[in-house]
Amino acid sequence: MAIRFRKLHPYVGAEVSPIDLRQCHDRAELEQLRAGMDEYGVLVFRNQPFTDAEQLAFAQRFDGVLHAKPGAAALGANRFGNEAIADISNVDNDGRILAADDRKRAYSLGNRLWHTDASFQDPAGRYSTLSARVIPKVNANTEFADMRAAYDALSDARKQSLEGLRVHHTITRSREILGFEFSAEEKQKLKGAIHPITRVNPRTGRKCLYLASHAARIIDWPVADGLLFVMELMEHATQPRFVYSHEWRDGDFVIWDNLATMHRATAFDDARHHRELRRVTTIDVPLQAVAAA
Q1: Which of 71-85, 96-110, 115-129, 211-225 has the lowest mean pLDDT?
Q2: At the N or C end, where does the chain have fewer CB atoms within 10 A?
Q3: For the chain, which residues make up each domain, given as ranges?
Q4: How far apart are CA 49 and CA 57, in angstroms?
Q5: Does 148 have pLDDT greater than 90?
Q6: HSE-CB for 72 with a 13 A CA cutoff
Q7: pLDDT at 289 over 50
Q8: 8 A C-beta contact, residue 250 and residue 132
Q9: Is the Cα torsion angle 132, 258, 122, 107 positive or negative in sign?
């Protein structure tokens, strides 16, 4: 049966059916999904009961090399023993809801800021896959902003002003603005990476803004000027007209393109409601390397 894409938002997001991604091995079918990513930026799949091993295997089939150096790794090993599986949850190693003053919880609050996965690495993240394992009975949406549409909506003069600008991304920036304190050793491990403020999808040629709350400064600019400039662009890029809000259901599996989108988690009462998601992100290596794999 042919894969169908049902548009969820004027700019970004589509629901895909019928497909069981755990059994998706056909290269032509995987290429259809990649083409869907190019068009929609975010793909939603229902009823996908992944295990950790199945999610890792799918991400590798889909896009090759996995991101295994998350910022949280600088704070200590995660509870799965595999840094390629990001623990997007509010529970500790024993499955208990984290205390309000727990350091892991304080660090994870940064997920509520608009960001792009692994922009603090070089190469950065390309596709992120997020698997819903335990969903609370309250709204705990994830929002996605289309950075392609945001770029297209800029004036020609503003587009021209962005040419050649490079931004230093570091995850310490997004956490420190929330009051999180890093040790000197942790900061040494989290130096960040430099990326252009606009990027191009090599498959489609489409241009987009490349922003995140990890953006600490524009290279060769005064720090304050650069931060204000980035904040202004982020405010433009996250206007409601560019944003799709995903309301999670049990078994949902969402893939997004970190080149085409920024995203953030929305707040819920995480002192009362248990939530667990697993994220696996691929690295933005040359596409030729993926095709040859």
Answers
A1: 71-85
A2: N
A3: 4-292
A4: 14
A5: yes
A6: 26
A7: no
A8: yes
A9: negative
Beta carbons of 61 and 24 less than 8 angstroms apart:
yes
Tell me the two tokens of residue 102.
């727990």
**Residue 256 in 3-state DSSP?**
strand
Query: Which residues are within 8 A (CB) of 234 and not within 5 positions of it... i.e. 6 or more apart?
Result: 114, 211, 213, 262
Distance CA(195)–CA(116), nearest Å, equals 12
Sequence-distant (6+) residues with CB within 8 A of 128 are 117, 255, 256, 258, 279, 280, 281, 282
Q: Are 82 and 56 in contact (CB under 8 A)?
A: yes
Between CA 278 and CA 285, with CA 279 as vertex, the angle to 5 degrees is 155
Res. 292: pLDDT tops 50 = no
Neighbours of 246 (CB within 10 A): 22
So what CATH class is 4-292? alpha beta
User: What string of DSSP letters covers 50-71?
Assistant: --HHHHHHHHHHHHSPBP---G
Confidence (pLDDT) at 22: 97
Closest CA to 116 of 221, 286, 256, 246: 256
Q: Cα torsion at 19, 21, 24, 27 (round to 10°)? A: 100
User: Would the pTM of this model clear 0.85, i.e. be above it?
Assistant: yes
Distance CA 142, CA 112 (A): 9
The single residue listed with the structure tokens 């970190």 is 258
* Backbone CA torsion sign across 245, 254, 52, 112: negative
Measure Cα distances from 104 to 74, 88, 118, 126, 284 in Å.
12, 10, 18, 25, 27
